[in-house]
Every structure is written in C-alpha cells, then in structure tokens.
Specification:
The chain is α+β, with helices and mostly antiparallel strands. 30% of the residues lie in helices and 23% in strands. It is globular and about 75 Å long. Bound molecules: flavin mononucleotide and manganese (II) ion. Flavin mononucleotide binds next to β8, α6 and α9.
Length: 501
C-alpha cells in the first residue's frame, strides 16, 4: 500500500486499522496530555486524537509513530527493512544488461524523478491566511510537556529554510518554545543544517514551519541527510509521489500544499534569547541556552486544522520509532562508504547518540578500529559516544548476544579504544559542552596480527543433530515454553524473565 497522501488520509488509515483512539474528554495541553501519552506509548498503545484540548478549537494528534506497526503503516511496508531495500536498490544501481534489466532500470529512474518536489498553485494548507494582528499562536493547543518546562513547545515541526548561497532547501525538526502570540525560539543545535543556513545569512533569514504533514514527509524532517540534499526529495522518493509545494504568503519560500498548518516568518541574525530548560529526549532537562528568535508574519491553515505533537523524555517515547526508521533507512547509505558493515543498532535506551552496535565482515587486522573511526567520521553518527564492534554473525539487535561477545572476546587492555571528538549538543556528561571522550570496544574475534593467541572455536551443534531434534521434537513431549522448540529464542526469553523476577 502506498504511504498516506496527507495527515487526513493517515488518520483515516489509523482509524481503519484500529490504531487510533479519539479522546472526546477535555484535556489540558499543559502537562496532562504528556502523562496520558507517556502511559500510552510505554504500553504500546494507539495513536491519540484529542478532539477537545483545553483552550483551543484545533484537535491534537499524538503518538502517530509510537509503534513499529504504525511506523510500517506510515511507510506502506511490512518491515522497516523494506524501506532501506528500496533505497539500496537505487544506490547500488548498475548499468542495465538486456531488456528486462533496462525496464527495471527505468522504474528506478522514475522513482528518482518522483522525488523532485512539485510546485502547485493552490494548497489546502492556505485555506485560511492570518496576517498582522490575526497571527496568534494561542489558537493552537501547544503542549507544555514537563513540569520544568517554562512554556509550551511546538515539538513536531518541519522547519524550512534555504541556503543563501546555493539556494538548496533544508527541512529539519527543531523544537520551538513559545515566547508570545507571534514569536518562538528556534532550537537549531550546533551541528544542524538549519543553523548553518542561518549562520550563512546576512540579516534576516526567511523561515517556514509546516505542521501536520503526511507521516513520511513529517519523518523526513528528522532525517540526518547531508546538507546539500533537500529532505523533501527523500520524502518524495519514499512516498513514490513528489511533495507538492505552494508559495508561502509572506516569505520567499515554498511550503507543503498538504500541511494542516504553516507558520511563516523570519529570524534576525544575532537576535537571541534564553531558550529552555526543556525536558529532553536525553531523559534530563537541557539547561537554558541562547537560541535565535523566530518572528511570525503569517499563520496559514486548513479551516479545521489538526495540530500534531510529540513528547520526548526518558526513553522509550514516541521518537524512538522515528530514530529506528532512520537507523534502518540509512543502513544502505552507510554501507556505501563502509562496505564491511553488515548491520548496526542504535539502542533506544542509548538516546541514539550514546551507543552504536555494529557488526562487520572482518577480513584484515585492525578492521574493527577502522570501522569505529569511520563511524566517528560519518554524518550525525560522528557524535556517537560509544561504538561496539562485533563479527558478522552476531545479531546486533540482540543486546544479550552482543553483551556475551563483549564479555567473551574483549581484553580491555588491547581492545578498548579511547578517543576524543565532537559530542551531541545535548550531552550533559562531558566536562565541556560539544567535545569529549569516545569509547570503542572491539568485540570481534581476534587475529594473530592483533596480538591474540590461537583463537578458540565457538561451540555449535552439528546441523545433522539439530535437524534430527527438530524432526523429533514433538515426540519428546517437552512443553514448549515461549516457543516451538526453537531453543535459542526460547531460552533467551526464559532467562530474561528469570532475571526480572
Ligand atoms: C521529535 C524530535 C525533536 C527534535 N528536536 C530537535 C531540536 O530541538 N533541535 C535540533 O537541532 N534537532 C532536533 N531533532 C533532531 C533533528 O531533527 C535532526 O537532527 C535532523 O536531521 C535535523 O535536520 P538538519 O540536519 O537538516 O538540520 C529532533 C528530532 C526529533 C525526532
Ligand atoms: Mn538537512
């Protein structure tokens, strides 16, 4: 099934699939919604459409991305790996051989052509146009998420800017703290493209903020693309339909035609104010820090616009699945530059930048170290604090299996790398903001050239006996606890339960 065309189609799909609950009761966007959503997300519950948020006539949609199933529905796939397969197909494109190959090649080229955004003359996002004194952020049910937050924050925006030199568009998701009816802070962290556009602009930079997009386009705002690639191109490619754009009303930018709401305005270079604190996805409040001020010149919207929101906080929260989508979608691109990588995992509990587990096909001495340093040099992965490298056969998504190899294969004296480099803007642990230590753990099997004695053989049962037991399992009359006699998974699950008791 194709990904939903806009937020309305997405809500219909969620409804049809039993993935949406409409909450009729009046609820307060001030803290109350956070507590409801926190409980819902942590129990794997549905998307929520709050139809009567206190103080606003616009419904609030939240937890649209909160489970793997919904994330797959958003992309129109059965597994997130299917999304990366599509990308890999294009990245690995070879000159076609023969007619069938050529036709297939054309299809792939069409998918690239589809990715170019298309300008249209009218968009639902501009049914209502509010300018001057009519501009009022108080119309929207903006959430104050955590008790220590000083104000409401817009949390699920697609912030659109242009590079003043190249003209290339950038779309990013950056929280926006409400200052008053017509201004917010713009939380452009130091490593982000949006901030680079702002720094490269003299005077005022035009900014547009799209709220309430189809899920793939909304996701694309959070995708860590290289600066010269427009996130709306990724959205178009993943949707198989170009993102449709209309001219903004008061700034020189194009905005999504299908958005529920668009905020237009400018940010003056050097006009900063104290943003935060904010209960962040690190699980801590990030402290107050100066950030640029966004001054609105217009709000455009659909007549009965739906406001989208998300809560971040101590993991697991809804953003876990946005991060997992990025992890899967970017695997083929990472493999293009570091081809020995088999798979990787960014544990949600590691807030994505604190830990990377990566498996490699090791062919030469020192290769695990090569891969650590490659990761510390690769896009936003460069901010990773710890990298654990395991061999190709290890399942990086099974943390107990990874832990086993970290324990079994590591001589801390030989296999631990301490390096230095840039760290995430929000990381409170290092002595100084932005820079600090890096930890690499080489948990691969070692070669003689790496200073190892003869490496022992791992224990495995022979295929012959495994097949025999598979065949005879029912005969033994052993009740399968948590499985069908697929002993591996069963025993691990059992252990997990045992340890929790
Ligand atoms: C829910 C959510 C909130 C985010 N908030 C911020 C933020 O406030 N500031 C920021 O710099 N990045 C934030 N990010 C991460 C950026 O969206 C992400 O790094 C994106 O790649 C930035 O785009 P850019 O590289 O084009 O600037 C957030 C991500 C998510 C999923
Ligand atoms: Mn970007």
């Amino acid at each position: 099934m194709a990904p939903p065309a806009d937020l309305r189609a997405w809500i219909r799909l969620l409804d049809d699939e039993g993935e949406l609950v409409r909450v009729d009761a009046e609820v307060d966007p001030d803290l109350e919604i956070t507590e409801i959503v926190d409980r819902t997300v942590k129990s794997g519950g549905p998307a929520l459409l709050f139809e009567n948020p206190r103080g606003s006539s616009h419904p609030l949609l939240i937890n649209q991305f909160g489970t793997e199933r919904r994330m797959c529905m958003a992309f129109g796939v059965d597994r997130l790996d299917d999304v990366s397969a599509k990308l890999e197909d294009v990245l690995e494109m070879q000159p076609p051989q023969g007619l069938v190959d050529k036709v297939r090649g054309l299809k792939k080229l069409k998918s690239i052509a589809d990715s170019l955004p298309k300008t249209v003359s009218r968009g639902a996002s501009q049914e209502l146009v509010l300018t001057g004194d009519e501009v009022d952020l108080g119309l929207l049910p903006i959430q104050r998420c955590w008790p220590g937050d000083p104000a409401p924050f817009i949390t699920l925006p697609a912030v659109i800017t242009r590079d003043p030199h190249t003209g290339v568009r950038n779309v990013g998701m950056y929280r926006m703290q409400k200052i008053d009816a017509r201004s917010t802070y713009m939380h452009w962290q130091i490593h982000k493209d949006g901030r680079a556009d702002y720094l490269a602009t003299d005077g005022k930079i035009p900014v547009a903020v799209a709220l309430g997009l189809d899920p793939v386009t909304a996701y694309s705002a959070s995708a860590p693309l290289p600066k010269h690639i427009d996130e709306f191109m990724l959205a178009g490619f993943l949707k198989g339909e170009p993102v449709e754009l209309v001219r903004a009303k008061t700034v020189d930018l194009d905005v999504p035609a299908n958005a529920e709401i668009v905020l237009e305005g400018t940010i003056e270079k050097g006009e900063l104010g104290p943003e935060g604190p904010f209960g962040d996805h690190t699980g801590y409040y990030t402290p107050q820090e100066p950030f640029p001020i966004f001054r609105l010149s217009a709000i455009t919207m659909r007549r009965d616009a739906i406001y989208p929101s998300i809560v971040v906080g101590k993991p697991v929260q809804e953003d876990a699945w946005l991060g997992k989508a990025t992890e899967r979608i970017f695997l083929p691109a990472i493999r293009m530059t570091v081809p020995e990588i088999v798979d990787y995992d960014l544990p949600v509990a590691g807030a994505f930048h604190n830990c990377v587990i990566v498996s490699i096909r090791k062919a030469f001495p020192g290769q695990a170290h090569k891969v650590m340093h490659a990761i510390w040099g690769l896009g936003m992965l460069s901010l990773s604090k710890a990298v654990v490298v395991v061999d190709a056969h290890v399942n990086v998504h099974d943390y107990e299996e990874v832990f086993f190899y970290v324990g079994a294969n590591v001589d801390p004296k030989r296999d631990v790398v301490i390096a230095e480099g840039p760290l995430d803007h929000l990381d409170h642990a290092p002595e100084q903001q932005f820079v600090g230590g890096k930890l690499g753990i080489d948990a691969t099997g070692k070669l003689p050239e790496e200073g190892a004695r003869e490496w022992p053989e791992e224990i495995t049962m022979s295929d012959e006996i495994r097949e025999l037991v598979d065949r005879r399992w029912a005969e033994y009359g052993i009740p399968a606890h948590g499985g069908d006699g697929s002993v591996q998974n069963g025993s691990r699950r059992g252990l997990r339960q045992l340890l929790r008791r």
